[in-house]
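Researcher: First entry.
Model:
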Amino acid sequence: MILNTSDVDWVESSGEEPFYLVDELPSTSPSQLPPLTVWGVALCISGTVIAMENAIVVTTILATPSLRAPVFLLLASLGLADLLAGVALILHFLFLFCVKPSDWSELLTSGLLVTSLTASLCSLMGVALDRYLSLSHALTYGSGQSRRRAAALLLLVWLGACVIGAVPAMGWHCLEDPHSCSVARPLTRTYLSLLCGGFLLVVMVTLQLYAGICQVARRHAHAIATQRHFLPANQPYASKHGSGRGFSRLILVLSVFVGCWMPFSLWGLLGDASSPPLYTYATLVPAAGSSLLNPLLYSLRNKDIRRVLLQACCPHRNTIAHTCTTLWMCKLPNSNKNSQSMPNIFCLKARTNT
């Protein structure tokens, strides 16, 4: 997918000479490639970072048998979609600056980007649905039947995303009719309008799910506050600080979600082939940037995934921490004069563990 700049790409010559369209410039050597730009380098670096961090998330979930709950299946799907988005950005850089662009390369990168962004957005909606069901059906959700339903739903999501991404390659593109192009060539304006309309629909459904999550959480907090009057004074209950912290996290997730997806969805509906490409960059970059933020906001915030990653990075972390604690206790001054044997016991335990 490249920006449609057929009406706005000009090459300025020196002095008072006129401007020339790119298509009207003298033909260059077939092997000549466009010069490397800052946007191109940033594109390649961001795609590499996106692919690496999401590959870590997907590998962690698939390689851990205990991470098979519906939420982990959804996070794996989200990571895989964002991984494909990073690969698509890298391929776009290679086809643009390292290999002479062709029709099939444009169709490949655009199809891969559309597939990955569609699957990523649907996976985000699935994560919101999982959170809503886990709160409203806490006793029954998470069973084996729920996992099978989640797997079947993800299979349908990926089949639909692949079909939507393959539509331009099957003939619905603007390579032969530049006047029908959208702000992102080779996608037609009709195709991109339908795609962005679907994106807006998914965004609205996701926001509705999070609104339902807030309602369920408010009912639970009210029930806990009511039961507090019938419990002992030392009985733990949900504090206002914890509820406020959870609400602030929800606001952060929603802000990033809407801020990343809403601009490009609206611009795809309003823009056309004659629109300035700068606006397309300004709206498409946040949509691609969501693939960079999703692992930080969803996967890496999960304590089970963090525990597996820490265990993989430092398998002897618990042993080292236990040994350091024991040695520290061994060096503590003995405040009780009658307990002379206690430091020796700790020192002996530390030597045995080391």
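Researcher: Second entry.
Model:
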Amino acid sequence: MSDKSNNIPSVLKKDKEIDNLHLFLNLVKSNWILILIVFIISAVFTGLYVFRAKDIYKSSTSLLIQKPQGSLLTSNMIPGFSDYASDRSISNEIEILKSQTIRSLTATALIDSFKNSDSKTDFYYLINRNKKVNSEHILQDELTELLGGIVSISQKRGLDIISIDVDSPSRTEARLIANVYAAAYLNYNLEFSRKGVKNVGDYLFEIKNKKLNDLNNSEAALQDFQQRGGIVFLDDQAKSIVEQIATLEAQKNASEVELITSRRTYDALKSELEKLDPQLITYVESQISQSYVEEIQKTIANVEAERDMELTIPKDPKLIEKVKNEYDAKITALKKSLDEKVELLKTGIYAGTPEERKEITAELLRSGISIQSSNARFNSLRNLLGKYEGEFSKLPSQSIELAKLERNRRADEKLYLLLEEKYQESVINEKSQLGNVSIIDKASLPIKPFKPNRMLIMAGGCTLGLLLGFGIAFLRNFLDRTIKSPEDIESKGISMLAWIPSIENLKTKGSSLDEFFVANNPKSKESEAFKALRTRIQFSKLDGKPLQTILITSSVPSEGKTTVAVNLAGSFALSDKKVLLIDCDLRKPRVHSLFETNRFPGLSDYLFGKVNFEEILNKTKLPLMEFITSGTIPPNPSELLSSQQFKNLLDMLREKYDYVILDSPPFISVTDSEILSRIVDGEVLVALANKTPIDVFLKSFQRLYSIDPHNFLGVVLNNFNYNNVYGYYYNYYYYYNQENKNKTATNQN
């Protein structure tokens, strides 16, 4: 016996799990039409979308992003100049690829391809937009905007490779756009990497042509002087001085050009870095202006100038070589010292600089040092030139004018030749700029569409339809504030007498008598439910007071209280109890229609003294059950039910009958039920499953319970579909346990 008792908790736990399953199944069963409609709508719309959706093809181009390598030549053609395109991170390249600039360049190229193409049907997007716009400019703007939606840029994980993916309903167009997009970016990257060199080259070209014009003028002036009969030749001393001054002047002017180009490079780098980190520029400039760096550069410039001038003085070749080596050794030592100082500066700057900005910061530092170097050399040459100007002024007066003209010609010639050499180097350097992007794989013609995945979309749409249907059903159930199951009542601490199964299937056309199913179908589950209700009522009041008069009421109309009252009375009659049913609903009576008889004479007629008691009694098919109809509708039902005559009638009926069942009006609507509850032995409150609002029910219960807690017998849940909520097993389980409770109560009694 104890083993069985120990198994009860696990059985109950299993039953609870089954209950939850049946609650879900009940939700589906009660809302299956709604769920089906939502599912069908979702499936239809998904099917229409799948049917009408165009096949989309994807074509891809792969780009390799490398660190900029500069030109094929070194960048020493002008001190301080370097590739200032710098090291841009992959993220920066992706943003550039997504920019409107690249999209606009691509759009222009696509429009040109469209114009020159023989098969224009391959251009899906261009054709559709060409129908809408008349202006090529508007078409380009539209196409530029469109490319932002159909072109996707992504980095291949862990690699310096960027993929350009293009989606289009046209396979040919997808491939074309991918290749044109890559080509547009490649050209942009190349132009960007050549930008600095091109700026320098343009400046050199401009200044070279200007100096060529100066050379022509100086040669013309010299020739004119000689033709006018002046001195044609200079002596050796004058030639030497003129040669040295011309060399110095040419070098000074060249240094000035280098200084200007270095400043242009520096300004370009500074402008680029200022967009990224303005504070970093201030720090770099403070490091460049360190006095010890500037002093070393001045020393180098002075030594170089001295070397150059020393080498212009005629000497023995061996002596010239010796002098040159001595100066070069000294300059090399100074430059090594300068490099060490600059390296220290670079290390200090790198310490607090983000990785992606180190390259451009180093270029800015190098360019700044180059400006100092060019400026120091320019000043040194200018000072040295001043010394030779003194020597020049000591020449014989008759030779000075010719010397000046010759000096100008030679200076212009040397400078022009130097600029021409630098310009040619800049042209080669520009052409050798390769950028940092290369195409790995060109886009190929896609074989099959990559979307839409019709099966997946259809499955997803149907699944979404089901989920949406369930969601709406759950929401509807959540918002439904009606009583759905006995647990809704018991969870409030209210006594549950019984639930009555749904009886809609027992009704026949045009017959109200069929609602009296305890008499018509005593073996049905509904009849069994009323037998259980009868038993529980008999043992529900254990305070020793007799229970003869029972009030049946409800919260609101149409909850089936009359059906409950009639069948409860019949159930008592079937247990050999003499029962009387009274229709006390003097406002909307229904007992007479259920038994298909006249409403009067009835209760009101008797209370008004118009008829005697025997005249209002009506027989039923059950020998021990009789009923009284409501009679004539009175103007004041509440006063009539609270009259002494009615109380006297109840006292008389208690002596004649074992049970008197009173069918009363709804409790919330009028005060009739409240009046009756004060003079009966017990009350039963009827609720209709899925119809009675829980808040209205609770108000009725609270008012009824507050009158006399001992008289409240419990609640009957009417029209409850237990199969939907609990399943068939619950019918046995519920009644089995309730019968055990009743037996226990009987034994205790």
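Model: Note on the second entry: The radius of gyration is 55 Å.
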